[in-house]
Amino acid sequence: MEMKDLVTLSDDKEYVVVSKVMYENKVYYYLIEKTNFSNIKFLLENGEELVSVRDADLLTKLLPLFIKTTEAITTTEDLEIMKKYIEENRPE
To answer: I need a labelling partner for 31 at 20 to 30 A (CA). Which of 21, 45, 66, 92 fits?
Structure first.
C-alpha cells in the first residue's frame, strides 16, 4: 500500500492511506475512512496482514513520523483526530 491508495478492510469500509512510515524496521500506516473522517486506523504491516496499533506510547512515537510524511496534505483537523485517538486509547 502507498499513500493515497484506497483499501477495503475487514469491516467492509473503504479507507485512504494517509501516511506510511518505517519505524524500527516495521511498516506502519495511518488510514482514514473515505466517508467518515473521524474513523481512523493506525496499522502495522505484519506479513500479509494488517494489525491494529493501540499502544499509546508507540503511537506517540509514530505520530511525528506520520506528520512528517504528510506535511503538505495534513490539516489541523487531521492532527486533532490523531491526538484524540491516542488519548482515548492510552492505558490507565
So the answer is: 92
Q: What is the CA radius of gyration of the chain?
A: 12
- The C-alpha atoms of residue 83 and residue 92 are separated, in whole angstroms, by 16
0.90 surpassed by pTM: no
Mind spelling out the 3-state secondary structure of 34-88?
A: CCCCCCEEEEEEECCEEEECCCHHHHHHHHHHHHHHCCCCCCHHHHHHHHHHHHH
Of 8, 6, 30, nearest to 19 by C-alpha is 30
Q: Could you tell me which of 55, 54, 11, 49 has the C-alpha nearest to residue 27?
A: 49
Kindly indicate the confidence band of residue 89, based on its pLDDT and cuts at 50, 70 and 90. low
Contacts of residue 35, Cβ cutoff 8 Å, sequence gap at least 6: 13, 14
